[in-house]
Amino acid sequence: MSKTGNGKRRKSFNPEQLGFTFDAPETGYTSDGALRGLDRVVADAVGLILVDAAKEGDSRWDIATAMSRVLDGDDVTKSMLDAYAAPAKDTYNISFHRFLVLVAVTGRYDVLRMLTAKIGATVLVGEEAHTAHLGHLIRQEEINKKKIKALKQEAPLIGLIGGGK
After folding, report:
1. What is the pTM for the complete model shown?
2. How far, in Å, CA of 35 to CA of 118, rounded?
3. What count of other Cβ atoms lies within 10 Å of the Cβ of residue 17?
4. Which residues of the chain have pLDDT under 50?
5. In angstroms, rounded to a whole number, what is the distance separating the alpha carbons of residues 115 and 103?
6. Fewest Cβ atoms nearer than 10 Å: which of 58, 67, 95, 113?
């Protein structure tokens, strides 16, 4: 655990890494130990979401209530959120489905995007998928134009082979 000069643990989650980028995430996560400490990163991410929500006027009780409503029968408490945000409580990590609900009720898709980048993936939210689809179609169009250009060099007019006029 790295410490700062005043003895406090340095955050493993850097909020400056948030924000969308068009750079492809690196996928070099397959080496031994590449994702070691990811549990602390997730706990720091939960903590950041909760602290920022509090600044916006949403208490941990509010968030726990909203999460419980979304999960309908799977109650989430403020104490659970406190534990999820504490990296030292490594036996009480947030489950993936609860983390997704936390992201959904707070709208912090940027945090989810930062975490998925650690495994070489990204997240598109809502209609952002249309932007990706558009980019894919434009790229396909470019490839098809190249294929058409190459094929024009080889393709004769129909009916001119074998005695046509």
Report:
1. 0.72
2. 8
3. 14
4. 1-3
5. 12
6. 95
